[in-house]
Amino acid sequence: EVQLVESGGGLVQAGGSLRLSCAASGFNFDDYSIGWFRQAPGKGREGISCIWNSDGTTYYADSMKGRFTIASDNAKKTVYLQIDSLKPEDTAVYYCAADWAPCGQGSFRTPTVRISSWPYWGQGTQVLVSS
User: Fold this and answer.
1) End-to-end alpha-carbon separation of the chain, Å?
2) Of 17, 31, 44, 127, which is most buried, counting CB atoms within 10 Å of its CB?
3) What is the reported pLDDT for 48?
């Protein structure tokens, strides 16, 4: 059974940093893409970044370049999302997702993503940024 478990969210002051984790199990991690997304109340699910674990290639949504860094530890089957210089508008539930297909810049061609476009999702971790 495919499982994705996010952790690392919490309450942080603006300007701070967080590192979110996505622990994966139940599939061949090295052959999958892992993506990070977020959804603020009343808004659609935004794509942030993805990594193709087979070769470590990373991609970022244009609006997310600069403060977000994705990284994978294949031995731990965990993908991380480092968020720096947090802003109140970063407040959202952050999700990771997995797909057996390589991800690419096309994964972020629309401002929001259809949940059906990624086969597997975690339950999300809440990030609250206070001003």
Assistant:
1) 40
2) 127
3) 97
Instruction: Give the pLDDT confidence score for residue 67 in this predicted structure.
Output: 96
CA-to-CA separations, 68 to 2, 17, 86, in angstroms, rounded? 26, 10, 10
Q: Is the pLDDT reported for residue 111 higher than 90?
A: no
d(CA 59, CA 9): 22
**23: how many CB neighbours lie within 10 A of its CB?**
16
Residues 47/113, Cβ–Cβ less than 8 Å: yes
Tens digit of each residue's pLDDT (9 = 90 or more) over 3-27: 999 999 999 999 999 999 999 999 9
* CA-closest candidate to residue 98, choices 115, 76, 110, 86: 115
Give CA–CA dist 25/95, Å, rounded.
16
At residue 71, the 3 state secondary structure works out as strand
8 class by beta-carbon count within 10 Å (0-12 exposed, 13-18 middle, 19+ buried): middle
Q: Are strands 33-39 and 57-60 parallel, antiparallel or unpaired?
A: unpaired
